[in-house]
Description:
Helix content is 17%, strand content 14%. By secondary structure, it is of the alpha/beta class.
Amino acid sequence: MKLNELENVTRPYKRRKRLGRGIGSKSGKTCGRGVKGAGSRSGWKSRARYEGGQLPLYRKLPERGFSNARFAKKTETVNLGQLDETFEDGEVVSLLTLRQKGFLKSTCPRLKILGNGEISKRVTIEAHSFSAAALEKITAAKIEYRVVD
């Protein structure tokens, strides 16, 4: 096989449309752009959703439904098993200490403890809420916890 014997097998060759090459080409004179106005000039692009000054469709349609996204309380969740791996005996578990240890990156204002995994270390847990399974395991292990507002 030689370089001059290679063929393009990925897609068929398609010639580009040659504009402005006479009346018989169907795209001569105005080159398919119509006559006059900004659209016939070079460098013009149409803005998405722009309808030539008439009221756009997206403004005619009614707003529907309700989104709770503006009012939702964002909460960071942590499992008991993760706390057991991250903290030592006698430490305090809170949003601040979790961020200091690099466990949490976000700036969520609330913390919820979930019950996945086991906890054996004697730590003090300060969180905004606890799941039912987490509370069961915490009370069974006799670990101190506080609900913070």
